[in-house]
Amino acid sequence: MKNKAVYPGSFDPITNGHVDIIQRGLEIFDKILISVLKNPKKELLFSTKERVDMIQTIFSSQEKVEVKAFDGLLVDFAKKNNAKIIIRGLRAISDFEYEFQMTLMNRKLDPEIETFFLMPNVNYSFLSSKLVKEVSMLGGCLQGLVPMEVEKKLKKKFKIN
Ligand code: PNS
């Protein structure tokens, strides 16, 4: 499939910022394979299965979205899944340096794969999975920042009513 993209990340957990990027991507690409990194270097709150399941639930009615966990090189995973496009979200200038390095490294590893950057709605420009976890752990309100499914799972993890 020519117009298939992978959207990789840790998604620990998926936020409304990620959902916004996926929705924008769906206007452009025929299929998006949300690619959940199994073992990121950072410490995880949710297991691979929990992260994949939450995303699958959120996009259960969207045929153009597929969700898979992966490990190893992203470019190898993309190629194995017939995708030549990587989607990444850019929230602010502070994201740029890391994304620039990753894009050029991925291009060095596989020049046939192109990275596309999409910007989320400005309402999500401050949003990150890390902050979502912190706010949730401290009992703060996450309304409008994560899908309902994720909010429920966070409350359960942190034993909040
Ligand atoms: O949401 P994140 O944690 O910023 O996503 C990072 C991710 C998953 C895109 C990145 O860590 C990745 O692609 N990992 C796979 C390993 C790999 O291919 N490394 C070389 C690329 S620079």
Describe how the helices and strands are arranged.
Blueprint: E1 4-9, H1 16-26, E2 31-37, H2 48-58, E3 65-70, H3 74-80, E4 85-89, H4 93-109, E5 114-118, H5 129-137, H6 148-157
Parallel strand pairs: 1-2, 1-4, 2-3, 4-5
The structure holds 4'-phosphopantetheine (PNS).
What would you note in describing this structure?
The protein has 161 residues and is an alpha/beta fold. It has a single domain (4-125), classed as 3-Layer(aba) Sandwich (Rossmann fold), CATH 3.40.50. Helices cover 40% and strands 18% of the residues. The chain has helices spanning 16-26, 48-58, 74-80, 93-109, 129-137, 148-157; strands spanning 4-9, 31-37, 65-70, 85-89, 114-118. It has a five-stranded parallel beta sheet. Strand 2 (31-37), helix 2 and strand 3 form a beta-alpha-beta unit. It is globular, with a radius of gyration of 15 Å. The relative contact order is 0.20. Residues 8-10, 37, 40, 73-74, 102, 105-106 line the site of 4'-phosphopantetheine.
| Overall number of domains | 1
**Measured distance between first and last alpha carbons:** 45 Å
Spans of at least 5 consecutive residues whose pLDDT stays below 50 are none
Q: What would the average pLDDT be, to the nearest integer?
A: 96
- How much strand content do the residues show? 15-25%
The CATH topology corresponds to: Rossmann fold
Summarize the structure.
This protein has 161 residues and is an alpha/beta fold. The chain has helices at residues 16-26, 48-58, 74-80, 93-109, 129-137, 148-157; strands spanning 4-9, 31-37, 65-70, 85-89, 114-118.
